[in-house]
Structures are given as structure tokens and as C-alpha cells.
């Protein structure tokens, strides 16, 4: 990303000389001249007094003095660690040209400082006694206090003032980048040429001229040339279309389009493109070149039929429509609202699909995924026309995100020459806007964020709240007429939040509304009522927003990924965005869900995993699932994030997965029973009704003979909690020293960590890791999740060095364990089988069938198809 010419954001990272330079640049010309040229010892008192008077009016000056002289906010005092750390992180990002993350850290540092200035009494009121009813009072008091702080005023100025934005377009830097791109192109360095042209497009203002042509159009045509050289013909064609949408009479764009169409075998279109190019070209040499190209097509294909036209190539669109299943929202005392179906629903039925009320790309995916549809960005990135921050995969997405108002009116860009009626029709068909969606204005979620710093500086969920508020006030037309700015009717967890979070929500809400107020004026009133609505909205986002995930294409030769608790089950998934779905928010959680969610573009899809009887709750997993984490971990996570104690079947009835997932192996080598530590035992004992109903069912599903025998024993004995004793095998009762076993696990983990941390893989490190796996196997139960994770990590490692047979063996070992933990037909097993298939394909082994049968028409199925295509 380009460093802005405007200098860097916020005094937090400003060194005193830099801040002084800024102050200097603000002094009026007349005063500067008076001081510089005419002042002398006799007039010094006058010039000094004038300068003092001027500085006293500048918030930046007050802030600088505050930063320099106030002991309380000194970064060198104790307890300022986090502000200082954040500042250092910001500086590092800034040095690397990563303005967006630099802003994020500087703002967090400034927020920390703000927090430290709030009087103790107010902090305590917010943290300990505030509730939804008293929120308007605490919000109003905090706003009143902040309004008096120069630090706060300066922060808002830095965040919301367009003039000082780091994301403004900048013609000079666009031209500089264009030259760099041209040089790379001349030297045959296509990858860098592509990079520089894209960066130039990010920086280029929409309506500036570069040697008589629109700069943006020129850059698109230049990039089209690179893309064509790289063999990316569809992308090249798209860039030509983008240039022509701006300037219809751009001869070079028609010429380049003609070349791309020729390469794709679209000769009819190529001839039309070149004819239009010929009519619009001014120079004689240019005309000759185009005529040469036309002749070439004619000679090459004289008398032959042109191959089929592939210009109308489109991505295969999945027309997934939910079946006509009637869903109903019902209420229960323990879970609040939830969803049921009025009829029986078969397995794998698509129940629901929904567009988000508001959505936002994850910060770490801003540069790699489309900021509207969240698909991965390809080579022909389309930047926002008004700021240098947002990136899109297509013009369509860009228009949806920014609205139509800033698009070039193609009709006003007349072609300027006489064309035959056929060619005129052709020009119109190429250059007319293709987006005809009535919802475009409503969806223009990025418009209010364009060209200011705060969307990059504030956390994603706060920016998402901003999108919800703007949509809400635009939808309900309540501009300036009401103090209700948002009311989504979703549940929230404000009361259960810890004191620190409550305070942070107050601060974030005031900062966000102040920034929106800057843009919308009195249409976003700033008072205790509106701020408290924002605080509640953020608490609603906390418990209702969904993470939009995408499959990561598993490149077997790619870098190794770090292992960890989630590795084996979510390795193919990347969290690309976060969204609020209003109806989707009505589905409650179960650790043994009967429905699952997936996303295509921004659309949420919900499908049944099992058949579900009429009026039974339809429940998805909010993250934790049986087989993924132990019961204890699931419950803590749900309590912490969603503020409820889960009583689903997985958490209230004994199941095999929870018994073995973190257990040790029996010290008797002939027994495959499980040994639990005291922590796990206590948890399992707390499960209600452990020995009735569900247990035999679980056993049947898991087909785990040895543990089945153990569990049957437990079933048979009445009141047999005593049989679950820490350190004793559940099957044969043999003793294992759990503490000593834990020490072995820790040692083995060190060996695996060395492998994870190594940038250069050596035989020693790999052998060490394999020995560590053996150690783990010697003390942990064969179906312990940790063993599966290490197997999976080793599979990735062997993939990365091309030892696919080893990779396949470890991957299969991992899947074998996961099948026991999750059950054979769980979606996680589908993910794992896809991964296995991606290893087996290059080995020439048959794959896929098993996974295909599991998950018809889900993204996994699409992914399998992609793998097959890649292989052909
Ligand atoms: C996305 S909302 C689901 C709809 C919510 N029940 C409502 O009434 O609006 C998430 C919240 O629902 C409640 N919830 C969801 N699943 C639950 C469960 N299994 N047991 C208890 N409460 C649950 C929790 O309060 C959680 O924070």
C-alpha cells in the first residue's frame, strides 16, 4: 500500500519533530513571513504573542502539549505497557507501508489512553452497575466527559476528517506507480508490472487526465496487456471492458480487446473490436497496426468456420433454492427464540438461504478477498473508485458496495465517430452497465466509509455496527426525525459482559457515532439514547453475527500451517468475513447439531445434517461440537462468548467422544480402555442422566468395540459414577499415573513445536517429531484428539516436501481417529476426505467417491469438482 503524502496519522506515533513540522505547516503565510523576514529583537514580543494566540486555537497543539507534558499519559509510566506496545506495533506496520494496520494499532493505543483518563467514579458506574436501562445515562456522562478532552477531539479529527485520510486518491503516486509498471512490462517482468498497475489503480483518482486520456482507463488497458501476456485472457478482456466503460472512444482499449478475443478464439468479436479500434484511432501508424491484425485473422481463418464463441463464458452459477419447508420461530424458557420446521425434514434438505443485513470483510482478508462478495481476489482486482482502501473482484461487486452514483455515465462518453449501425449496437452492448439491481443503493454499504481513516482504524465489528446503523436509518427514513437509529430486535448479552468489555463498548460506540455524525450531521444524533443503542447493537453483534468462511484450496506444495486445537477440523476453512443475518440469528446452538451452515458469496445456506422430525428444534453449532473439543472446553467457550450454559445432548448425556477425546491409554497393553484425569472425571460426572437413553445409540454410531464394552459396563451398573475414577481405566480398572503421563505429553509436544517453528525443515527435526508422535501414542488413548492433530500436521509437512505416501498415511491415521470422535458421516470427515483426496490424486490413487456421497451440493462438493478439474 502507498504511504500517503499527508503524513502519518495521530500524534501517538508522531515524534515531536514530526508534530512540530505539522504545526509549522498550519501557520498562516502572513505570520510565517512576519516572523521569518521582518522580526527583530524589538518586535519579538508581538510575533511571539501572535503565534501563541494562533497555536492556542489548534487542537493539535493542545494535544501535543498534553502528550509531552502530562505525567498521567506518559508512555514511560508503569501500566502504559499496552499503549506503548500498540504504538510500537503501529510503527512497525507504518514502516512496512501497511497504513491500515498501523492506523488500527495507533487507534487502539489512543483508546487505551482515553480509557486511562476516565474518572474512577464513571468507570466504576459503567463497569459495575450499568444495565440496558441505565445505559443512556452512562453513555451521556462519558460523551460529556470525552467532549472536553483535546485527546478525544484530536482522535476524532484524525479518524473522520477526509483531508487527513491515508486512503485518499493521489494522482502523483498513481503516475509514479504507472511508470514503475511500464518499466517492468518493458523488461518482461509481468508479475511486478501487474502489481504496480494494480497499486496505481488503487491510487488513481477517477477523473484525471494522463496525456489526454483518463488515467484509470489507461491503467486498465496497460494491465490488460500484462494479463494477456500472462495468459489470463478473461481477466484481460474484463480490464478492457472497464476501460471502455469509462471511455468508449479509447482506441487502444478496443485494440487490446480485439487481441484478447483473438487469443480466445472469439473471432467475430475480435473483428468487431478491431473495426471500432480502427475507426477511433487517430494515428496513421496505429491504423496500420490494426489493419495488420485484421488481415491476420482473415488469412488464418479464411473459408473456415470460426470456432465457437466463448466470450460469453460465465462462472457456473449455483441456483440453490431452499425447498418449500415451512419454518417457524418458537420460544422456550431456557433458550429464548429458536427455529423449528412444521413438517418432518429429510436429511440434507436445504432449509433456508438469506442475504446479510450487513457484512464486512475480515481485516486479515482485506487485501486477498473481495470486500463485497468475499471470494478470493484474482489478478484483475477492481479498486474502489473513491478511496485506496477497498478492493473488489469485479465491477459488479464494486458497484454493489459503493452504489451507482459515482459510475461513469457511458452515454456521456460519446464515441465521436460515425459507425455502422451494427458496430454501434456492438459498442453499446460492450460498454453499457451490466448491473441492474434495484437493491444497489440499499446495499451501498461502503459509501459512508470512503476516504476516511476510521473504517481501517476501528475493529471490524465496530465498522460492521456502523454499516448496520447507516442501513437502518436509510431504510427507515428516520433521518433527523427520531432518536432511534437502530432496532434489530436481536438478543444481546450486555448484562453478562465483563466490566472491561462494557467500558470498551461505551468508548467504541461514542467514537463510531462521532465519526458517523461527522458524515451524516444531525441525521445521526449524538446523545445518551443513540449511543446506548449502539452499545446494545455491539452486544447483539457479539452473539448474533456469523463468521463467513471459505474453503482454502489445499495446495499440497504450499507452506506448512501451524497446528493447534482447530487444525484438523478447520484447516480448509478461512474466516473471510463477519455478517448479520436477521432470520439466521434465530437458530440456537447444539454441540450435536442437526443443521449446518455454509456460504456461497455472501449468501447464507442452511441444510439439515440428519432427518429432523416436525417441531423438533433446528440447531446449528456456534463453533464447539462434540468430537472437536472436550465437553469442558465447549461449555467454557459458549459461556464466555454467548453467555449460556449448554444443555444439549452432547453436554448432558454421556457419549464416547467426550470420554476418549482427551484421555490416556490404559497401562494394560491388551486393553484399549480410556483413563481420565480428575478434571474430565468431574465434568463427566456432572452430566445429567448419564446411564439412560442415549449411550447405546452413541455406541452403535461409533462402533468402537473396546469403549463400547466399557460403556456397556457403565450402563449395566446402577449409580455407577464411582466407576469413573481419575487415573483408573474405565474398562479394566488398571491404574495409570496421570501426572507422569502428562509430563511425557509435554515433552512430546516440544518435539512437535520445534517442527512447527522451523523455517528450514531438517531430517533431524522431522525424525524428532516422529519420535514425539510415538511418545504421544505410548501414553494417550488411540482416539485422543492430540494424536489426530499431530498426525494431521505431519501429513501437511510431508506434503510440503513432496513425500506424498507418508503424507497419505498420516492423513489416513488422523481421519481414522476423527471418525471415532465425530462419527463417520460428519461434515468434518467430509473435509478430511477432501484433503486426503488432494494427496491421493497426484499418487494416482482413486479418491472422492466416499466424500461425494457424504456431501452432495455443498461447497465441499464444489471443491471436489475443482480438484478434479485441476487434475484433468
Ligand atoms: C443467535 S441467538 C439465537 C436466538 C435467541 N435464542 C433469541 O431469542 O433471539 C444466540 C443466543 O441464543 C441463546 N441460545 C442459543 N442456543 C442456546 C442453547 N443451546 N441454550 C441456551 N441458550 C441458547 C443464547 O442466549 C445465545 O446468546
Automatic annotation (TrEMBL):
This is Tetratricopeptide repeat (TPR)-like superfamily protein. It comes from Artemisia annua. Signal peptide: none annotated. One of its GO terms (molecular function) is zinc ion binding. The keyword NADP does not apply. SMART domains: TPR (SM00028). Transmembrane segments: none annotated. Coiled coil: none annotated. Keywords: Metal-binding, Zinc, Zinc-finger. Residues 325-623 form the SET domain. PROSITE patterns: SET.
Amino acid at each position: 500500500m502507498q504511504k500517503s503524502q499527508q503524513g502519518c496519522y495521530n500524534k501517538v506515533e508522531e515524534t515531536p519533530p514530526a508534530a512540530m513540522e505539522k504545526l509549522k505547516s498550519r501557520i498562516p503565510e502572513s505570520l510565517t513571513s512576519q516572523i521569518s523576514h521582518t522580526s527583530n529583537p524589538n518586535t519579538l514580543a508581538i510575533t511571539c504573542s501572535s503565534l501563541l494566540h494562533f497555536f492556542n486555537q489548534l487542537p493539535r497543539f493542545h494535544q501535543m502539549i498534553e502528550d509531552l507534558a502530562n505525567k498521567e499519559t506518559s508512555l514511560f509510566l508503569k501500566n502504559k505497557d499496552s499503549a506503548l506496545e500498540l504504538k510500537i506495533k503501529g510503527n512497525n506496520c507504518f514502516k512496512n507501508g501497511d497504513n491500515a494496520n498501523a492506523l488500527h494499532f495507533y487507534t487502539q493505543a489512543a483508546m487505551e489512553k482515553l480509557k486511562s483518563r476516565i474518572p474512577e467514579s464513571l468507570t466504576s458506574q459503567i463497569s459495575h452497575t450499568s444495565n440496558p436501562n441505565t445505559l443512556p445515562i452512562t453513555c451521556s456522562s462519558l460523551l460529556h466527559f470525552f467532549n472536553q478532552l483535546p485527546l478525544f477531539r484530536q482522535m476524532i479529527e484524525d479518524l473522520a476528517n477526509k483531508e487527513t485520510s491515508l486512503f485518499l486518491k493521489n494522482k502523483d503516486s498513481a503516475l509514479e506507480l504507472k511508470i514503475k509498471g511500464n518499466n517492468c512490462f518493458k523488461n518482461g517482468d509481468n508479475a511486478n508490472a501487474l502489481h504496480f498497475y494494480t497499486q496505481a489503480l488503487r491510487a488513481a483518482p477517477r477523473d484525471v487526465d494522463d496525456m489526454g486520456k483518463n488515467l484509470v482507463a489507461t491503467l486498465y488497458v496497460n494491465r490488460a496487456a500484462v494479463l494477456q501476456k500472462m495468459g489470463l485472457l478473461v481477466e484481460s478482456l474484463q480490464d478492457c471492458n472497464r476501460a471502455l466503460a469509462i471511455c468508449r472512444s479509447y482506441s487502444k482499449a478496443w485494440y487490446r480487446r480485439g487481441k484478447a478475443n483473438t487469443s480466445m478464439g472469439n473471432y467475430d468479436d475480435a473483428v468487431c473490436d478491431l473495426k471500432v479500434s480502427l475507426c477511433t484511432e487517430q494515428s496513421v501508424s496505429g491504423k496500420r497496426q490494426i489493419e495488420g491484425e485484421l488481415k491476420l485473422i482473415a488469412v488464418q481463418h479464411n473459408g473456415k468456420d470460426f470456432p465457437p464463441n466463448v466470450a460469453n463464458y460465465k462462472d457456473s452459477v449455483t441456483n440453490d433454492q431452499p425447498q418449500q419447508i415451512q419454518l417457524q420461530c418458537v420460544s422456550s424458557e431456557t433458550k429464548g427464540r429458536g427455529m423449528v420446521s412444521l413438517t418432518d425434514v429429510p436429511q440434507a434438505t436445504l432449509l433456508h438461504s438469506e442475504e446479510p443485513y450487513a457484512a464486512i470483510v475480515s481485516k486479515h482478508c482485506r487485501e486477498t478477498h473481495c470486500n463485497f462478495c468475499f471470494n478470493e481476489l484474482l489478478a484483475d482486482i477492481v479498486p474502489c473508485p473513491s478511496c485506496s482502501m477497498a478492493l473488489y473482484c469485479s465491477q459488479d461487486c464494486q458497484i454493489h458496495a459503493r452504489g451507482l452514483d459515482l459510475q461513469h455515465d457511458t452515454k456521456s462518453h460519446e464515441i465521436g465517430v460515425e459507425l455502422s449501425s451494427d458496430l454501434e449496437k456492438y459498442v453499446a452492448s460492450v460498454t453499457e452497465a451490466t448491473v441492474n439491481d434495484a437493491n444497489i443503493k440499499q446495499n451501498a454499504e461502503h459509501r459512508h466509509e470512503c476516504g476516511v481513516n476510521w473504517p481501517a482504524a476501528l475493529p471490524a465489528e465496530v465498522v460492521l455496527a456502523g454499516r448496520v446503523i447507516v442501513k437502518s436509518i436509510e431504510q427507515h427514513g428516520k433521518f433527523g426525525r427520531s432518536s432511534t437509529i437502530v432496532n434489530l430486535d436481536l438478543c444481546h448479552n450486555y448484562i453478562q459482559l465483563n466490566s472491561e468489555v462494557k467500558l470498551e463498548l461505551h468508548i467504541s460506540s461514542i467514537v463510531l457515532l462521532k465519526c458517523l455524525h461527522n458524515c451524516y450531521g444531525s441525521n445521526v444524533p449524538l446523545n445518551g439514547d443513540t449511543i446506548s443503542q449502539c452499545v446494545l447493537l455491539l452486544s447483539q453483534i457479539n452473539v448474533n453475527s456469523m463468521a463467513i468462511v471459505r474453503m482454502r484450496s489445499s495446495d499440497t506444495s504450499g507452506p506448512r500451517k501451524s497446528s493447534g486445537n482447530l487444525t484438523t477440523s478447520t484447516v480448509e476453512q478461512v474466516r473471510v468475513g463477519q455478517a448479520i443475518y436477521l432470520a439466521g440469528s434465530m437458530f440456537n446452538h447444539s454441540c450435536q447439531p442437526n443443521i449446518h451452515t455454509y456460504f456461497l458469496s455472501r449468501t447464507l445456506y442452511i441444510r439439515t445434517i440428519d432427518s429432523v422430525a416436525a417441531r423438533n428444534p433446528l440447531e446449528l453449532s456456534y463453533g464447539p461440537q462434540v468430537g472437536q473439543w472436550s465437553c469442558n472446553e465447549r461449555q467454557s467457550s459458549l459461556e464466555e462468548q454467548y453467555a449460556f450454559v449448554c444443555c444439549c445432548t452432547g453436554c448432558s448425556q454421556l457419549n464416547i467422544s467426550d470420554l476418549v477425546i482427551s484421555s490416556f491409554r490404559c497401562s494394560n497393553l491388551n486393553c484399549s480402555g480410556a483413563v481420565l484425569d480428575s478434571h474430565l472425571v468431574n465434568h463427566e460426572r456432572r452430566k445429567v442422566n448419564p446411564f439412560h437413553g442415549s449411550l447405546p445409540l452413541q455406541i452403535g454410531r461409533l462402533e468402537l468395540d473396546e469403549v463400547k464394552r466399557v460403556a456397556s459396563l457403565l450402563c449395566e451398573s446402577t449409580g455407577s459414577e464411582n466407576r469413573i475414577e481419575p487415573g483408573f481405566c474405565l474398562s479394566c480398572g488398571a491404574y495409570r499415573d496421570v501426572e507422569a503421563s502428562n509430563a511425557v505429553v509435554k515433552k512430546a509436544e516440544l518435539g512437535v513445536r520445534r517442527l512447527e517453528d522451523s523455517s528450514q525443515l531438517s531430517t533431524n527435526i522431522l525424525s524428532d517429531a516422529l519420535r514425539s508422535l510415538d511418545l504421544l501414542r505410548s501414553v494417550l488413548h488411540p482416539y485422543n484428539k492430540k494424536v489426530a492433530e499431530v498426525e494431521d500436521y505431519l501429513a501437511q509437512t510431508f506434503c510440503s516436501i513432496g513425500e506424498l505416501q507418508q503424507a497419505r498415511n498420516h492423513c489416513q491415521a488422523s481421519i481414522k481417529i476423527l471418525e471415532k470422535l465425530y462419527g463417520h458421516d460428519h461434515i468434518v470427515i467430509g473435509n478430511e476426505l477432501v484433503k486426503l483426496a488432494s494427496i491421493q490424486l497426484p499418487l494416482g490413487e482413486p479418491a472422492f467417491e466416499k466424500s461425494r456421497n457424504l456431501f452432495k451440493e455443498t461447497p465441499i462438493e464444489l471443491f471436489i469438482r475443482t480438484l478434479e478439474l485441476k487434475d484433468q
